[in-house]
Amino acid sequence: MAKQNVLSALVNDGPIIANEHRSLSAETAEKLRELILLEKLPPGMHIPERDLAEALGISRTPMREALRTLAIEGLVEFTATRRSRVANPSIDELRESMTVLATLEALGGELACAIATDREITAIADFNQKMIECTDKFSAINFFNTDMAFHSSIIAATHNQALIDTHRQYNAKLWRARFMSSKRKQGRAKTLQQHQDITNALIARNAPKVAQAMRGHIETAIENLSIQQNDT
Questions:
Q1: Quick check: pTM over 0.85?
Q2: CATH 1.20.120.530 region(s) of the chain?
Q3: I want to staple 116 with a disulfide (CB 3.0 to 4.6 A). Which of 105, 157, 212, 229 is the partner?
Q4: Judging by DSSP bridges, how do beta strands 84-86 and 76-78 pair with one another?
Q5: Long-range contacts of 193-202 (CB under 8 A, 24+ apart)
Q6: Which fold is adopted by the domain 2-86?
Q7: Which 3 state secondary structure label does DSSP give 86?
Q8: The domain over range 91-231 is classified in CATH as 3.40.50.300
Q9: What is the pLDDT along the chain (232 residues), one digit of tens a residue?
């Protein structure tokens, strides 16, 4: 009972309910992502599937489906005995994946300069402005979601499905790492300036500058992760 009370307090938003746009398992996966990002389910922790499902007001079927989704994304892994636990990649593994992501985002920026419509570039600039205006008002999770929307909208503007799918795969694996970098307030001014540099280059349709800015932005994320690793 005590364990159940702790889990209920952990999720404290009431039961998960499917809506017309997303299934119950998709809603559950979104809630689990948030719990992992906020380290309410910390790296390496075995996930108490039955108790957590009960705390969320769902059956174990959507819970297992959600966990399989997160396993594909790299946020969760299954042991040899099929127990689930929160993934805990090493800093070297994160650096390797970030290096690939930097190349993907640089390519995405270059293609967006050539292919994106004016409306799409305006939407990207709107995400950037939203981050500038709400930096101090946003919770860490909301700031991060807007940050990721900014990046995803650039990739989407390439209209290159192979790149979109590959970027989604790598970005999902790095979701928690990018969140840890995004919430580091000491580097937020630099992050916002880099976003502005990216936006300005996109508006000017200057492909080399966009690619350079995108690479530099991901390199900053790698630096932030290294700093946090040294601080722990």
A1: no
A2: 91-231
A3: 157
A4: antiparallel
A5: 194/220, 195/128, 195/131, 195/147, 195/150, 196/128, 196/132, 198/109, 198/128, 198/154, 199/124, 199/125, 199/128, 201/109, 201/113, 202/109, 202/112, 202/113, 202/116, 202/121, 202/124, 202/125, 202/154
A6: Arc Repressor Mutant, subunit A (1.10.10)
A7: strand
A8: no
A9: 434 444 554 555 555 555 556 789 999 999 999 899 888 899 999 999 999 999 999 999 999 999 999 998 889 999 999 999 999 988 889 899 999 999 999 999 999 999 999 999 999 999 999 988 877 666 788 888 899 999 999 999 999 999 999 999 898 888 888 888 877 777 788 889 999 999 999 999 999 999 999 999 999 888 877 776 665 5
Token pair 């909208």 is found at 153
The ranges of the chain annotated as CATH 1.10.10.10 are: 2-86
